[in-house]
Design goal:
The complex is a heterodimer of chains A (174) and B (188).
Chain A (H helix, E strand, L loop, with lengths): L2 H9 L6 H12 L2 H22 L7 H15 L3 H11 L1 H34 L10 H19 L8 H12 L1
Chain B lengths: L2 H12 L3 H23 L2 H17 L10 H23 L9 H7 L6 H12 L4 H12 L4 H8 L3 H22 L9
Helix pairs in contact in B: 1-2, 2-3, 2-4, 3-4, 4-8, 6-9, 7-9
Classes of the chains: A mainly alpha (174), B mainly alpha (188).
Amino acid sequence: MNCNDYKKSIFLYAELSTLEKAEVDMHIKGCDNCFALFHATQKMQISLNRIAQVKVAPENAAKLTRAIMTKINGTTASKWHHFFTLSFHSPSLKISLSLLSALIIVTFSLESFNHSILSKQFLKQPSQGSVTLDSKVFREKASQRKGKASFFVDCLSPFKSNQYSLECLKNKFK
Amino acid sequence: MDQEAELDLIKKAMKGDAVAFRLLVEAHQGLAYSIAFRFTRNEQESEDIVQEAFLKIWKNILRYEREFRFKTWLSKIVTNLSLDYLKSAYKKNNIDKNANDYTMIATSDENKLEADELKGIVYQLAEQLTKKQKAVFVLRDLEQLESEEVCRILQLSNGNMKSNLYYARLKIKEGLQKIYKNDELQRL
């Protein structure tokens, strides 16, 4: 190590381990420049210690305490708020809530799974009296209804008399 | 206040006991004010920072971690608030310039340099440090906290803390040397 390396150690002398301090001590014994620097930094540290000894305190400590407590009391107007905050920070409640949410998720998953199986079975085997919505069946039924309606259209003309219509229908059924 | 009594008060404060919290405030507001003042050098701002710090602690008391001392937690909050203040104050160029110009003090009457004047000079020189360097310097050299505590408060590694402290001390020493014109700090 050269003098430049020791420079940092001299400035950080108070932070060094006993072994590191001994190494620096050894070096400064044989180096005038580093000894001068060590001397100067130690004097500076003494001056800084003197400044640190001058305690800085608020002018009116009691007034400051009152000001702090007024602000704090303002925030704790609601005891319920504190109760709920406290409750939500309790580990047992956190565990219970996470278990409950897990249970809800599992229930919904099972429910949707069952529903999908049931709906598949329902489509395969429609039960008696149920209505199946199938576009093909719907089209067939619609065309049949259309055929039946056209059967009577010939007889139900607004330009013919009722007598004619009755006669016509009788003939159709014959 | 011993650590057990302190922990007892914290537990009570966690349950909403404002009286217990008041005792914590009374025990620690001096330290909080001291840190804030060494950063800001402004009484009113320091008091505001202390109030805000305790309010933050009260609101987050349930997040208190037992492995840290209350003092460390408080110092961390006060340091962060002070650094925030400095950041906004630098932007507004609103730093308190009540300390006299140090070159004037030094040249006018070097022999009668008092501790207060020296304090003014060191604070003025500390203004030239970076935020991190200033934080490390204030906590380690002016508040005389342990190195480990400084690392915890500023969330720095030991190496990083030492590096910042080295540059801070170097700049302060160079500043003092300029004032005393290579007098090797004989007057200090």
